[in-house]
Write a structure and sequence with these properties.
mainly alpha, Arc Repressor Mutant, subunit A, 4 helices
Length: about 90
Amino acid sequence: MKSDLILIERNYQQKLTLADLVTTFDISKSKLIKLFNRYLQQTPIEYLNSFRIKQDCQQNGKWGLLYLFSKITICLIIVKTTHLLV
């Protein structure tokens, strides 16, 4: 488990997938997800995304957080607009 976290934290800027983690550690997808849920109450991808956000906020301070909120807002507007068009 610790080696999974280290891999994620060292490579968080790269495109990492669940398949990458499974292959690297020779563990089944379901077992990896169960371990993360058991010890971190998150899936591996949720952990990766939350780590990325924390790193961005630490490096960019409030501007990183504002950028994140603006991206989320844009995504929500697109989803809502698309939903209204359908």
